[in-house]
Amino acid sequence: MNIEPYRQVLTRYWGFTTFKPLQEEIILSVAEGKDTLALMPTGGGKSVTYQVPAIVKEGICIVVTPLIALMKDQVNRLNALEIKSMAIHSGMSGEEIDIALDNCIYGDYKFLYISPERISTRLFQTRLPRFNLNLVAVDEAHCISQWGYDFRPSYLKISSMRELIPPEVPFLALTASATPAVTEDIMQKLEFREKNVLRTSFERKNISYLVRQVEDKGTWLIDNILKSRGSGIVYVRSRKRCREIAELLVSKGISADFYHAGLPQEMRDRKQISWTTGSTRVIVSTNAFGMGIDKADVRFVIHWEMPDSIEEYFQESGRAGRDGKPASAVLLYSSSDRRHLEDSLRRKFPPVEKIKDTYEALCNFLRVPEGSGKDNVFDFNMQDFVSKYRLPVIETFNSLNFLQREGYIEFTEEINNPSRVHFVVGRDDLYKFQVANEAFDSFIKLLLRSYTGMFSEFVAINEEALSKKSGLPRDTIYKFLVKLSGLNIVRYIPGKKTALVIFTEERLERKALMISPDNYIAVKDKHIFRVNKMIEYADSNTRCRSVILLDYFGEEPDRCGICDVCRDRNELDLSKYEFDIILDEIKELLSGHKFDARELVSKISLPEEKVIKVIRWLLDHRKIIRDDNNLLSWREPDLFTR
Question: Is CATH 3.90.830.10 the classification given to domain 207-334?
Fold first, then answer.
């Protein structure tokens, strides 16, 4: 197949003349009508793999994504390139969604971004067969798998689209983190016509992965950031610590700021721009920071605390060194971290009865009667909710997540929805209204001069900007919009910032609320498995960091040579082959047996001085231990089992 039309689109809209590794293969696979699962690391350019073929081909592409902020960002970028795009999510009114779907059917739109919980709604399902569809792209595809670290039941509805669209329309599933089990599950759940996985190695040869076991993390952080160059990210687990660490860095003369989801959107945007442009050197953030980051020259990513999974750590650390130049990913690890993980497990898996208490409180808080509420969307203020019912915040948040995992609700991140306006009268009727109502004439002209497209769809507006432009008080702008809405000239939806709860099932009475004990235990066991893998990574001081990470994702790479473990091994002046041979023989001999050092050396075929070096190295790194009788044994890992 000729790749040239796709290269022309890439050059025209994005300014590149060649594709990144694997992008071309994915595009050609999709262009040939094949269902395709693409595994690409963070920063690999996933969006291009569906945007380019969808632009080349006639029709519209549906993009499923759970991240509303990222959805809005992508739509804004595409529209800025004059590629007509639309978004549908639970933060929109039924009227907005209705108009948006009509525009996708009858207009020349190329992309419809949709959140997964909207797919099963009657409004979408009845319109879908009328789409001139050329591709379905599923972003964050690991969310469809119960084996994955971020399972969302709403993703299981995606395959229902197959029954409503032509069979030749291909599905493209995209993820930056999938184990072999998750990879198989994605293809099965999306009903791939045949297995088709395209992957690029997750290996990042320019990133040096380091683990630093330190008790005084603050001192280490300050010393090492002062000694390093370039910009970086420090990831933490709490909003409070974000601010504290940023203030600590600033007090030591380091240009730093903090970022988390609880900040106003305008402030978040300002902080991200300041860091992206280099005005701020270090951003201290929760995992809310990362979506849509295009900064290629990040020289270090430091995790103050251990994430819950390899997937999360790999994705966040992968934001370093996207320009291909040397970068470091550092995990700070202290003796108290294991205790924090144990506390985290207790809060992450509240007792089943507590989860049911949260469900009943939520239904009462939102005034949802038994037997009703299905597909209803509610604004939700978490702080008001926990305050009213005197609930612990973290346990309540995790109870809501478990209710989402069981398929009873969808719980979205906080959405910052701007005000929207749509003219419900045609241009001729509007002109007659302006002639008959001179008091509104200037304001209507201001609206029409400031924004386009309001006759065909809801358009985001900014009352503050209109106020500055017209010289009128903001309150006057608001009153004009409310009056015009009351006169059925426009539909005006004032902006608001809120999280949302969507009931995917009607409210059930408590005894009918089924939370399977087997499922509860299975979810908990999977979480413990992922945490243990993360602990193994942090505890290991004999195995290459990069090898541990990539082995988790089913790859078999050579050791990187630049992580802390490899650097330490390099000082032994042994080849990789020699070291591995000696290590394997020692491990086999000491599995279930004990030997004194001299006897152990005599049982290994390689030169004595080399064997002694490896034994000393293993003792220094506590992989083998010496008992009171000077006998050596292999130390088994101490895993998290609670």
Answer: no
